[in-house]
Design a protein that fits this description.
By secondary structure, the chain is mostly loops. Helix content is about 15%, strand content about 10%. It is built from 1 helix and 2 strands, in the order βαβ. InterPro entries: SAM-dependent_MTases_sf (IPR029063).
């Protein structure tokens, strides 16, 4: 599992809570600018309201997802 967290302090908290879980990686980046090193089979996102109130462009999730072979 790869977790993308824009706040470095929250990423440290997440890493601390995931100690002992070798399959969890935490990346510090904005979801809109982060580029994975491989395609993923599932994209799950929870987004808090933007604290800055700025309009955000929707992310094209197809950039992250592996193509189905079915």
């Amino acid at each position: 599992m790869t977790c993308v967290e824009p706040d470095a302090r929250m990423a440290r908290v997440l890493r601390r809570h995931c100690t002992g879980m070798p399959h969890v990686a935490v990346e510090v980046a904005d979801f809109e600018t982060w580029r994975p090193d491989r395609p993923y089979g599932l994209l799950y996102s929870i987004r808090a309201p933007d604290r800055r109130g700025a309009a955000r462009r929707p992310v094209t999730s197809s950039l992250f997802l592996a193509r189905s072979r079915a």
